[in-house]
Amino acid sequence: MDTQGGSNIDPADQWVLDPETGEYRLETGADGAPAATVPGQRRRRARREGERRPVPEPGEGTRRGSVRSRKAKRSTKRKVLTWTAGTLGFVLLAGSAGAYMLYRHFNDNISTVDVGTAGSKNATSDDAVNILVIGTDSRIGLGGKYGDAGSPGHADTTILFHVAKDRSNATAMSIPRDMVTGIPDCPTKQKDGSTKTIKGTPEAPFGPRFNESLGQAGRDPGCTMRTVSQLTGLPVDHFILVDFEAVKTLSTAVGGVPICLTHAIDDTDRQGQGSHLRLAAGPHTVQGEQALQFVRTRHSLKNGSDLDRIDLQKQFLGSMIRQMKSRNTLTDPGKLFKLANAATKSLTVDTGIGGVGKLTDLAKDLNRVDSEHITFTTFPVVDNPAEGKNHRTVVADGTRAPELLAAIKNDVSLTEVTKKPKASDAKLQGSKADPSRVRVLVYNGGGPQGAAQTTLQWLQNTKGVAHSTNGGNAPGARQDRTTLAYGPDQADQARALAAMVGLPASALHPGKDGSGPGTDMTLVLGRDFQGPGVPLTGAAKPPAGIPQSHADKNVCVG
After folding, report:
1. Over residues 325-336, mean pLDDT
2. Could you tell me which residues are beta bridge partners of residue 113?
3. N or C: which end of the chain has fewer CB within 10 A?
4. Quick one: the chain helix, strand, coil %, rounded to 5?
């Protein structure tokens, strides 16, 4: 039976009792995917084989109950990435030998890279999350089909996926491969367990290009993570590396990816180079080899540049997200198995998310963001002025890039989204103490050298905060964000100081213990501190003039 009718099939019906082992196993078809078996057929076969359904464990429920549960949670399941939903769908019968073997099969598919201190060791976080998606143009193992068979691959396509702390929105920012930027020193793990530091390359008028952060001189994905952190000021938690085969297998596993072109494409240049894609204007569905051609196309686009190709890639990724979240995929056991198998085989990740369980936790967390609030944009660049009229590279736009990065750092959505109310906002509401009553001890925990002293002088000489003291360098590790800690009876002082310094509500940390008379609050200046009186509240709205597209909308490009 064709699995396309899978919406009426219970995943539990894919498991049958093996009379030889006494354990349940997943029944598969010729292609290795779960065979589609309707409930009636399974029940009839069970009666023929004398199968006796085991009594459910306490709290386990019956299959009929699980169907009702799945219907009740349908809207939630639609928000789970397809490959993760596939994994979850096939470990529902936890404890059976078959489920364990399938789980181990997916787990063994995953390749990992230890990036040391470049990323996070935790799969999930209560804070904002930054994931680097790297598309490599490696040709190794492809037999010269796409050019140089020995090319180790560079960071050909790179997207920084930022998810807001409250999960109300996400921004996927493409980073042009031909952008000139410095590459920092990079410690890399060797096969023998040792660490080798690859010397960085400082920025110069004509290089290095961003794509050299991977592959060049043995640089691994951790080097690209460090380069992005240096470029954007954002910590990168995890990476996901995708190669040519991943695009082909994933697009096929979801049944094709819908795209739309404003103009016809014939991507072959005079030297016979290019993706060799030929498509008429209008809507199409691409998969496999044609999907790979689509995301590699650039010669036949308006300017024939990498920036034009990024527009195609953003449309492709947005459309694939819609396909992955579609009900047709999530309720089709065959598609789920194929996509879970294809994804885990095709992706390389950091050790922090290097396992089915960790990837599942991460995906469940990130998929709290609705598709309509996922925005694709591009790091703002301008033509490299050092090249004159011969434009081969680009450089960061000194005006628009800082504006976009400030918005991303402060979780500002590039779409219209109703932000979830923050309980911390109430900290700024209420009366403020007179400056003469404010008592504060100022530490430098990551700001410029001498920041504590200059802030102290500013508070005393311009704000009238006489009871302020320089604590010097803060003990412990340097911190990214400026914080203000205060006692429960110092809330009015905290509000007054926050207004002077320009602190957001998230920077205020009330204590539980009574502070007592004459006790100082503690102000620790973080890396975000730019000087006395410079507000740290960040961008409140997205910058104007930033090109963007949205994961929930399919528009024609090209």
Report:
1. 66
2. 350
3. N
4. 35, 20, 45
Distance between the two ends of the chain, CA-based, in angstroms? 40
Length of the chain: 558
Q: Radius of gyration over alpha carbons of the chain, in Å?
A: 27
Q: What is the rounded CA–CA span in Å between residue 500 and residue 174? A: 37
Helix (H, G, I), strand (E, B) or coil at 250: helix
Nearest 5 degrees, angle CA 211-CA 215-CA 220? 105
How many other C-beta atoms are found inside a 10 Å radius of the C-beta of residue 47? 9
DSSP H or E stretch at residue 161: strand 155-163
CB-based burial label for 299 (10 Å; 0-12, 13-18, 19+):
buried
| CA distance linking residue 336 with residue 340, whole number of Å | 6
SS3 17: strand
**pLDDT single digits (tens) 449-496:** 899 999 999 999 999 999 999 999 999 888 888 999 999 889 999 999
Determine if the peptide bond prior to 208 is cis (ω within 30°): yes
Alpha carbons 89 and 331: distance in angstroms, whole number: 9
Does an H or E element contain 314, and which? helix 306-325
Distance CA 264, CA 278 (A): 8
- The tokens of 195 are what? 């660490």
Give the position of tokens 């194929």.
338
**CA distance linking residue 416 with residue 168, whole number of Å:** 11
Tokens of 280: 């008429």
φ/ψ of 10, rounded to 5, equals -80, 125
Helix (H, G, I), strand (E, B) or coil at 546: coil
Residue given tokens 């490959």 in the structure block: 83
Query: By the 8 A CB rule, do 46 and 13 touch?
Result: no
Encoded amino acid at 394, one letter: V
Query: What is the sign of the dihedral through the CA atoms of 383, 385, 387 and 389?
Result: positive
CA–CA distances in Å: residue 134 to residues 115, 148, 177, 222, 247: 14, 20, 11, 11, 12
What single-letter amino acid sits at 470?
N
Point out which residues pair with 179 in neighbouring strands.
394
Residue 112, strand partner residues: 349
Q: Which amino acid is at 272?
A: G
Chain-wide mean pLDDT for the chain? 76
- The confidence score (pLDDT) of residue 140 equals 52
Residue 25 sits at φ, ψ, to 5 deg, of: -135, 155
